């Protein structure tokens, strides 16, 4: 039996009297592209931050690549790439320099790093703007740089927190193609989104999350068939009585 790449059991995270994650159980297989779908504030980012070792759970357990998030956070960080929801870039560096910086932090071989940076910039359509300061970039361009900063060390497991937010439709499609390519290379990917079409286009399975709880789980087609829905928006409405983008 293949061990899950990510295993979450009875996971709870509380911030004082607010329960951000309320007892989530989830196993994600190696090479799976898994979507966490839900409105802003549903608990998606909190789950990713726990898995990345940035937050400690209040109770329950989680492992990433077989390592416990409480005991082995440093080992986990060697395995993962994280594209955060809020862009984290150095505005006075160029796009290329931002990506190279993260490659150096991960001790990527210089020759390999040079080739990797060039390839990644090409993949997200930023080659022509690579030597401009990031402070001059649009929001969507910053998102694309943030994405490839997370990938420059070739991690096995990727946490992508709303990676296409603020992107124009053409850039979003290019990033979708790139994410599909990553899956084709056997990467395990967790993607958070409140774009239903993104989840349907990319994900092997989707976990619909609301108010910190996993309220539906399955392949997009399975969920639509189960609830007799045309799309995942309808699935969410049937379960909660409201639209997924409320509060988004």
Notes on the structure:
- The chain is 37% helix and 25% strand.
- The strands form 2 sheets. It has a 6-stranded mixed β-sheet, with helices on both faces.
- It is globular and about 50 Å long.
- By secondary structure, it is of the alpha/beta class.
- α3 crosses α4 (110-123), α3 (95-105) runs parallel beside α5 (139-149) and α8 (220-227) packs across α9.
- The protein has a single domain, classed as P-loop containing nucleotide triphosphate hydrolases (Rossmann fold), CATH 3.40.50.300.
Give the CATH superfamily. Answer: P-loop containing nucleotide triphosphate hydrolases
Question: Could you give a short account of the major beta sheet?
Answer: 6 strands, mixed
- Bin the strand percentage: 15-25%
Number of helices: 9
**Low-confidence region ranges:** none
* CATH fold-level name: Rossmann fold
Question: So what's the overall shape?
Answer: globular
Radius of gyration: 18 Å
CATH architecture label: 3-Layer(aba) Sandwich
Structural class: alpha/beta
Share of residues in helices: 25-40%
The order of strands across the largest sheet is 6-7-8-3-9-10
**How many separate domains?**
1
Indicate the CATH class: Alpha Beta
């Amino acid at each position: 039996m293949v061990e899950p790449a990510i295993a979450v059991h009875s996971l709870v995270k509380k911030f004082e009297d607010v329960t951000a994650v309320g007892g989530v159980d989830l196993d994600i297989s190696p090479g799976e592209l898994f979507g966490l779908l839900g409105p802003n504030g549903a608990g998606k980012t909190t789950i990713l931050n726990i898995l990345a070792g940035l937050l400690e759970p209040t109770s329950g357990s989680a492992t990433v690549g077989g390592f416990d998030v409480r005991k082995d956070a440093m080992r986990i960080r060697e395995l993962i790439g994280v594209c955060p929801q809020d862009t984290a870039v150095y505005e006075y560096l160029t796009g290329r320099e931002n990506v190279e910086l993260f490659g150096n932090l991960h001790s990527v071989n210089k020759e390999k790093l040079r080739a990797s940076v060039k390839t990644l910039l090409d993949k997200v359509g930023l080659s022509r703007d690579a030597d401009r300061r990031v402070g001059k970039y649009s929001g969507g361009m910053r998102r694309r740089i943030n994405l490839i900063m997370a990938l420059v060390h070739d991690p096995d497991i990727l946490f992508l927190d709303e990676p296409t937010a603020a992107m124009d439709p053409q850039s979003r499609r290019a990033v979708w193609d790139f994410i599909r390519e990553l899956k084709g290379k056997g990467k395990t990917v967790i993607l958070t989104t409140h774009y239903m079409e993104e989840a349907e286009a990319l994900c092997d399975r989707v976990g619909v999350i609301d108010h910190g709880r996993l309220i539906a789980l399955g392949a997009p087609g399975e969920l639509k068939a189960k609830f007799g829905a045309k799309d995942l928006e309808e699935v969410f409405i049937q379960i909660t009585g409201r639209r997924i983008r409320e509060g988004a």
